[in-house]
Amino acid sequence: MEFEQIKELITLIDTSDLAFFELSDGNSHIKMDKSLNRGGSDNTVSTANDKIITEQVVEKPISNSTNNEMKKVIKEEVKEEVKEEEDSNLSIITSPMVGTFYSAASPDTPAFVKVGDIISKGKIICIIEAMKLMNEIESEYNGEIVECLIKDGDMVEYGQPLFKIKEA
């Protein structure tokens, strides 16, 4: 990896919300950790060590495709962090039991709810079949359905997220 690529990588990590980043490729190893609370003297490296690190980097250059892969991984991690922040504003309706998820009362009828529907607390949102019994699952929140996390006919576990709700 060339010096300019390392500088660009440092800038990308520094401007992102990532607290830790590690990359290994052959003999080269880069580790960045913004969560460490060290004094300035602990983070300094002698000139001799800088020379060794630079020589290792020059000896083992990373191909352009590897560089693109690193950028892709960093972008995906940043997108995941943004999604987690967005998800923190949402409420999750979870399965109260193990069984089979059904979005409608029968295959011929429309789903109880779909993305974009405004629901109120107590509204039936799905059915979970457990031991040949059909259990109607009611909403615990008032709000808008943002995402259905389960496909019709899928098995669900106790506590498994079913819907994301933006509370009103």
From TrEMBL:
Gene3D superfamilies noted in UniProt? 2.40.50.100
Q: Which GO terms describe its biological process?
A: fatty acid biosynthetic process
Q: Which NCBIfam families match?
A: BCCP (TIGR00531)
Tell me what this protein is called: Biotin carboxyl carrier protein of acetyl-CoA carboxylase
Look up the record and name the pathway of this protein.
Lipid metabolism; fatty acid biosynthesis
Described by its record, this protein's role is as follows: This protein is a component of the acetyl coenzyme A carboxylase complex; first, biotin carboxylase catalyzes the carboxylation of the carrier protein and then the transcarboxylase transfers the carboxyl group to form malonyl-CoA.
- Where do the TM regions start and end? none
Entries under PROSITE patterns matching the protein: BIOTINYL_LIPOYL
Q: Which gene encodes it?
A: accB_2
Which keywords belong to this entry? Biotin, Fatty acid biosynthesis, Fatty acid metabolism, Lipid biosynthesis, Lipid metabolism
GO CC field: acetyl-CoA carboxylase complex
Name the Gene Ontology molecular function terms of this record. Answer: acetyl-CoA carboxylase activity
Tell me the CDD domains matching this sequence.
biotinyl_domain
